[in-house]
Amino acid sequence: MFKKIVVGLSLAITLVTASFAGNQVEAASYHTKAIKVAKSELGTKYKMGGISSSGFDCSGLVKYSYQKAGKNLPRTAADIYKKGKKVKSLQKGDLMFFAPNKAKTPTHVAIYIGNNEFIHSSSSKGVSYAKTNNSYWKQKYIGAKRI
C-alpha cells in the first residue's frame, strides 16, 4: 500500500512539474518570437498610429510583434501598461515603459532584448535599438511589465 502511495505521489509531482515547465517554455517561446518579429522590422520608419510594416509607432510595434507571437495586447502604451506583472529585474521580452518627467502614465513602450538593450519605434529613428542606460530614455523610464 505504501509503495502505491509513493508511486502515485511521484507521478503527481512529475505531472505538475512538467506542466509548470511547459508554461515557462511557452512564455519563453512567445517572448523570443516577439523579439524576432520586432528585429525583422529594424529600419521600418516611424508612423504615428502605425501598426504595420509600412510604419510603426511604439505601441504599434509592440502590439504587432506580440500578436505575431500569439499574444493580443491593447493598442496604446498606457493600456498595455495596465496588463502583465510588474518586474524589477528585466528578462528578454519584458516590456519597458517610459513617460515624460516620470509621469505615471506611460507614453512610450519598448521590448527588452537582453544585454541592456531594447527595441522600439522612435519618432527620430523608426524601429531601432537603444541602450537601457541611454541618457534620454533612462530619465523617462517608469518600469517594466512581464506579459
TrEMBL record:
Q: Which GO terms describe its biological process?
A: proteolysis
Pfam families recorded = NLPC_P60 (PF00877)
The stretch of residues making up the signal peptide is 1-21
Where does the record place the NlpC/P60 domain?
28-147
**Could you tell me the keywords of this UniProt record?**
Hydrolase, Protease, Signal, Thiol protease
InterPro entries reported for this sequence: NLP_P60_dom, Papain-like_cys_pep_sf, Peptidase_C40
Tell me its family: Belongs to the peptidase C40 family.
Specify the protein name.
Answer: Endopeptidase LytE
What taxonomic classification does the UniProt entry list for its organism?
Bacteria, Bacillati, Bacillota, Bacilli, Bacillales
What gene name is given for the protein in this entry?
Answer: lytE
